[in-house]
Fold these 3 entries.
Entry 1:
Amino acid sequence: MRFLADENVYFSTVSLLRQEGHDVLTSYEAGLMSLSDPVILTYAQENRRILITRDSDYGALTFVSRLPSAGLVYLRIEPNAENQVHVQLLRLLAEHTETELHDLFVVVEPGRHRIRTLP
């Protein structure tokens, strides 16, 4: 799967996804550091990359402001729950195709993940 990792995503998460064979481009690698959330969301959408982030503001951008998205994975992750969230993230990726995720907003947290269809 093709991901764009927001600047706040842990390096361990990026490494995990890459080890699992996913194409992960970081915000730094894309030259998007310190740019606004709408710019990052637009970049992900234009490049058909699922945005993975720890920033809850993206939910409002997609559901309230109705900015288009190529899929969003919001990680509710704290350092003490990192492994639990990674287990759920891998479970999510095993259960859904990239095409399916392009239409979803997913919240991944310890012990579960919740899915909403994007507008």
Note: The first strand starts at residue 2 and ends at 5.
Entry 2:
Amino acid sequence: MTGLGYLVCLVLGIGCMLLIDWRFRLFFWRAPGAAALVTAAGVTFLLLWDAAGIAAGVFLRGTADIASGIVLAPELPLEEPLFLVFLVLCTMVIHTGTVRLLSTRRRRSQP
């Protein structure tokens, strides 16, 4: 699985997050338009952050046997945007799930 291992893991991770989202209707399956907008905004912001870090010489691609080696821009591997999608999706599923759990707990504790 060398060469594409990380890419495959990212796609599987995104798929698993979407399955959790689907099961509990937390993000995309609760409000698809808003979820798409939040995901696009989050990924765009983080890509701009990456671009600033690359321009400053802080972020470097490095070498790894599990990476595809495909770069979208200097020091920006193909896997980075997919990782950012996973990061935003994971964050939003955890956030919306936590909000739901806390609101359920509050409702149960009220007389």
Note: The chain has three helices and two strands.
Entry 3:
Amino acid sequence: MIRGFWFVAGAGAGIYATVRARRLAEALTPEGLSDRVAGLRLGAQLFGEEVRTGMAEKETQLRDRLTPALHGPPALAAPTDITDAAERDLT
């Protein structure tokens, strides 16, 4: 029973190593390297588009927040704190 287990474990490890070696050899061919470079280029392009989209969204948010400030100060609101109201009555 033990010998059968180790035989199966060794055969599985051998098959796994063979598959991994074949994949590595295919990746290091000129076609494999060009595919990897193309994938990196596409990934960088997609990342750049995401960054530009995020920058545009943030710029829009900042413009929306700051536009009222450019048209003058906002109207003063009534004090909401009780101590502020008490100080105002004392003066």
Note: The chain has one domain: 2-66.
